[in-house]
Specification:
Layout lengths: L18 E4 L2 H11 L4 H4 L1 H6 L9 H16 L1 H6 L1 E6 L8 E14 L2 E11 L5 E12 L2
Antiparallel strand pairs: 1-3, 2-5, 3-4, 4-5
Length: 143
């Protein structure tokens, strides 16, 4: 895939090309339809306020998909074929939030003609709160 990082470009501590995503209620509604999660905390503002959420919140998996999008941009087919995520959901993302998605190469382990790349990843909301934090792992074959 064009734009994906090669092994020669990778080094421990390097920042991955990040991205920003604007969360809209339409995105949340479309995700609810696609995923079948019609919990009113995601779809009904009045319900979400009464439930103590201050308004609707995005599905955690919708925001997690932004990390996968960043990893696909960085590692292309390698990520799509064998990427792994281990994350924790820490805070809510809401309609109107711009989520900043970032990652950093934490470790490169070479063995048997391939390299396992471990990255720290996170999504942060406009208040500076970490929405998702965790680790992504992808195997890159040397060519």
């Amino acid at each position: 895939m064009p734009g994906t990082l090669t092994l020669s470009q990778l080094s421990e501590g390097m920042e991955l090309p990040g991205l920003t995503k604007s969360v809209t209620q339409l995105d949340i509604n479309l995700y609810a339809e696609a995923g079948g999660d019609h919990n009113p905390v995601h779809l009904d503002n009045e319900f979400a306020v009464k439930a103590g959420h201050g308004g609707t919140v995005a599905h955690g998996m919708l925001i997690l998909a932004y990390i996968s999008q960043m990893m696909t941009g960085a590692f292309g087919a390698n990520w799509l074929q064998a990427g792994r995520l281990d994350v924790r959901f820490k805070a809510a993302a809401r309609p109107g939030d711009t989520i900043t998605v970032s990652g950093k190469v934490a470790k490169l382990v070479k063995a048997n003609g391939q390299t396992t790349v471990t990255c720290s990843v996170q999504c942060v909301n406009p208040k500076g709160e970490t929405v998702i934090t965790g680790e992504a792992q992808v195997i890159v074959t040397e060519t």
